[in-house]
Design goal:
The complex is a heterodimer. By secondary structure, chain A is mainly β. Chain A has 2 helices and 21 strands. Classes of the chains: A mainly beta, B mainly alpha.
Chain lengths: 297, 315
């Protein structure tokens, strides 16, 4: 067996190796819901319209040169090109300085008669929200719904897909992962709690992504191609409105909605900040250096 | 000693390295959950190999093939191999590949949690280590009479080599944790990156020390210097691949899909890590084979008589 000195050397060497574990960090950017998760939307005074509701409308502007859509190589599944002959990314969809696929919602606020919007409960809509898979893309790319509202996932492609919802750990929504072959019936799911936003991905086609904003109330919208949005039926009051984009940016505004009136709130995003997306606690080494050959698939 | 058995063992070891590459491709393409069921794929033995199903099911096919090869190897060992401890090591390899299969199924059922995925990656390296050891032990040169060599200094080289191998194993585990800690389009956590870099420094120090001392104390012994040189060359390549893997990964968050340069370099980094591990194991085993603290004038070469190195004598 090992002699005493040899055992000492071996222990020192192994401990030196294990000492590297001392700086072990956790998974970057992974949020845990310390507040116990999102709102189910069913607690509190039931909200009833008073007839004095107004609306919030506006446009999302994009300053600077928007990152150009990147071509997607779908060679690994030729069936994808049947419905999408020239596939490009939809991470940043911008036209004439306006930004699409921005999720705008009321985060908090107080109605004109002094009640907090968070204290209300809202009926779960009976209508379904549809997420389709066509051309090996999720359509729409960003959508909103309320807790316990039905999400109907359909497959319009001549190939199979895999729908993987990745809600935040500890947020109250369960992760799910389902396969949906070509011709299969729709998959119906719900999210129990509000969450901004639940990423959806396909494990068979890694470029496929969608985002679902689950909000306890119906006061949300997704900007169109012209960057415009409108949130209707908002009770008169003062609110914090958030505009969220998947490249990590979030803009905030305080908006006062008059009774039976329309409030306007525009937001502006910076294209340069979107170039590298959300930054975790990562190291970056010379990000400005171009490596053209690395950009080719 | 059967040359055919040794060659087949080396072939299975090579197949195991190919399996590690196949597994790394699954991770780099984010294909771990492309097939939602196990052990069948979409309820079939052979599904349509499109999209990421190609990588995931391909990995399963290679794994099944390696499992069959290990079974054949064990049958051959039990028929031809006289050393009981070698036959038992073959059973360890068989248990390892079976456990790997079950862990692989667990990653699918549990949706690839970091701990299970890392355990799957770690066991893969340990299984590879077992196969490399079997290749060494079944080599004709292992059982040939060989003069014992004195250690000639402190620290004892054979324990330094063992420490280097242990450090590499820890580094492989850290690499597995790092790989599975973020999606392909996310930045790697800085803390884990620094931990892995620190591990690389520790590995480099221990392995370079081992290589240096091997050449200094036993310059004429190619039985030791050759695996040391190979380990050194692979270490240099591995460090370069590590830097390249990190740099290419920086562009992933802005890419629409896993890019070939990032995938290729990262998979090469995984494979080279396995080869560094293998070469260090060969060096360590050979060091234990020939090195002694003190060498008497006539020392029976128990290993050539069929014994395991420095262990109890068995028939």
């Amino acid at each position: 067996m090992l002699k005493k000195r040899a055992r000492l050397w071996l222990a020192i060497c192994v401990m030196a190796s294990l000492a590297a574990l001392g700086a072990c960090g956790g998974k970057g950017g992974d949020d845990t819901a310390g507040d116990g998760g999102g709102d189910k939307g069913t607690s509190g005074t039931k909200y009833a319209p008073t007839g004095n509701e107004g609306s919030i409308a506006g446009k999302i502007n994009l300053t600077g040169d928007a990152p150009a859509p990147q071509p997607i190589d779908m060679a690994q599944d030729a069936n994808c090109k049947t419905n999408n002959p020239n596939p490009v990314t939809e991470t940043v969809v911008a036209k004439d300085g306006k930004l699409a696929n921005v999720f705008v919602y009321i985060k908090e606020g107080t109605t004109a008669d002094g009640k907090k919007i968070a204290d209300f409960s809202f009926d779960t809509p009976s209508s379904e929200v549809v997420l389709d898979q066509k051309g090996c893309h999720y359509i729409p790319h960003v959508l909103g719904m309320q807790p316990n509202q039905k999400l109907k996932v359909t497959n319009s492609d001549p190939t199979g897909h895999n729908i993987h919802a990745l809600p935040k750990s500890g947020g109250g929504n369960e992760e799910w992962n389902e396969s949906q072959p070509n011709g299969a019936g729709p998959i119906t799911k719900t999210f129990k709690r509000s969450e901004i936003l639940v990423p959806i991905k396909c494990n068979q086609h890694p470029w496929m992504k969608a985002y679902i904003g689950v909000v306890k109330h119906p006061f949300y919208a997704v900007t169109k191609e012209d960057g415009s949005y409108e949130i209707k039926g908002v009770p008169a009051g003062t609110y914090t409105v958030i505009a969220w984009h998947e490249k990590g940016s979030e803009k905030t505004a305080q908006v006062t909605v008059p009774a039976k009136g329309a409030a306007t709130s525009d937001f502006t995003f910076d294209a340069a900040a979107m170039a590298f997306g959300p930054q975790s606690d990562s190291l970056q080494v010379m990000p400005a250096i171009e490596f053209p050959m690395l950009g080719r698939h | 000693m059967s040359k055919g058995l040794h060659r087949f063992t080396v072939f299975v070891t090579g197949a195991t390295l190919f399996l590690i590459v196949a597994g790394a491709l699954v991770t780099s393409h984010d294909a771990g959950l492309a097939v939602p069921d196990w052990p069948l794929s979409f309820g079939k033995v052979m599904p349509e190999m499109v999209g990421n199903v190609f990588w995931e099911h391909g990995h399963r096919m290679v794994a099944t093939s390696v499992g069959i090869l290990v079974i054949i190897l064990n049958l051959w060992l039990w028929r031809r191999e006289k050393r009981v401890w070698v036959r038992r090591l073959g059973l360890v390899a068989l248990a390892g590949v079976c456990a790997q299969g079950l862990l692989g199924g667990l990653t699918v059922y549990l949706w690839t949690p970091v701990a299970v995925s890392t355990a799957h990656a770690t066991l893969a390296q340990l299984f590879f280590c077992t196969m490399v050891s079997l290749s060494v032990f079944t080599a004709p040169g292992w059982s040939e009479p060989r003069a014992a060599l004195a250690e000639k200094g402190s620290p004892p080289l054979r324990y330094l080599c063992l420490a280097a191998a242990a450090a590499i194993l820890v580094q492989l585990i850290l690499g597995g944790v790092l790989r599975h800690s973020a999606e392909w389009d996310e930045y790697l956590p800085a803390g884990l990156v620094m931990t892995h870099v620190t591990g690389a420094v520790v590995v480099a120090l221990l392995l370079v020390s081992s290589i240096f001392i091997t050449h200094r104390r036993h310059a004429g012994e190619t039985y030791l210097t050759r695996p040391a040189q190979i380990a050194g060359a692979l270490l240099a390549l591995q460090l370069c691949l590590g830097v390249a893997a990190y740099v290419t990964r920086l562009w992933s968050p802005s890419a629409p899909q896993p890019r070939n340069p990032m995938v290729g370099i990262t998979v090469a980094h995984v494979a080279c890590g396995a080869l560094v591990f293998a070469s260090t194991i060969v060096l360590a085993l050979r060091a234990f084979r020939v090195l002694r603290d003190e060498v008497a004038e006539s020392v029976p070469d128990y290993v050539s008589l069929g014994a395991a190195p420095n262990w109890r004598t068995e028939n």
